[in-house]
Inverse folding.
């Protein structure tokens, strides 16, 4: 699954690309509207994440030009604007969905997956991740723990699940606190970064203290939970 991000805010573009790559997608990034149009016209993509305010050519024009050329790739538009007129204008140019900044990474991923499903393209990354006794269904947003001969569902809050999901899709890798903040909280979040530790502690209480390891100075790593004897 190939995605194209056209976004001139480089930090945001890097964060989106890193997160979507971790979801299992192949991601290309450009920072200019004309370059985005050139890439989208010359290469097949499964979805485009397109900012409105771009140098070279704005997102509205990029979108309308692609549609006029018969290109029906799903387009998710991003903008800092926030009015009904702006949303209507974006959709009138042929965009499939519209997301206003600042937004949660979790919401963006949900929109991306919904657009891909709507276009009959599937979601790309596997929906169910099994690590020993832990089973995480990212499509249904449910978590199960094997206990003896059966399974018990773990009740997680939305944010707890979002933090766990970032670790699950990169199981065995170290995920930094900054990456988790960028992907789970709004990109404009400027509160205490130690909020991540609060949610990791909650996940340990609910899923087992040995599940998430702290890698000092680097971040967190999801370990495979040992299977219980049957």
């Amino acid at each position: 699954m190939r995605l194209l991000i056209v976004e001139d805010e480089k930090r945001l573009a890097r964060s989106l690309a890193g997160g979507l790559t971790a979801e299992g997608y192949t991601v290309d990034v450009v920072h200019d509207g004309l370059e985005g149009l050139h890439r989208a016209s010359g290469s097949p993509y499964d979805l485009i994440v397109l900012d409105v305010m771009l140098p070279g050519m704005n997102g509205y024009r990029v979108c309308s030009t692609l549609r006029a050329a018969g290109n029906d790739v799903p387009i998710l538009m991003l903008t800092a604007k926030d009015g009904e007129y702006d949303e209507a204008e974006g959709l009138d140019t042929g965009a499939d969905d519209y997301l206003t900044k600042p937004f949660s990474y979790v919401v963006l991923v949900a929109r991306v997956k919904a657009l891909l499903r709507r276009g009959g393209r599937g979601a790309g990354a596997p929906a169910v991740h099994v690590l020993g006794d832990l089973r995480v269904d990212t499509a249904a947003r449910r978590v199960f723990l094997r206990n003896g001969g059966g399974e018990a569902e773990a009740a997680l809050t939305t944010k707890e699940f979002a933090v766990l999901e970032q670790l699950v899709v990169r199981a065995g890798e170290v995920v930094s606190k900054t990456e988790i903040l960028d992907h789970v909280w709004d990109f404009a979040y400027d509160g205490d970064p130690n909020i991540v530790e609060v949610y990791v502690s909650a996940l340990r209480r609910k899923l087992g203290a040995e599940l998430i390891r702290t890698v000092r100075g680097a971040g967190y790593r999801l370990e495979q939970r040992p299977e219980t004897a049957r």
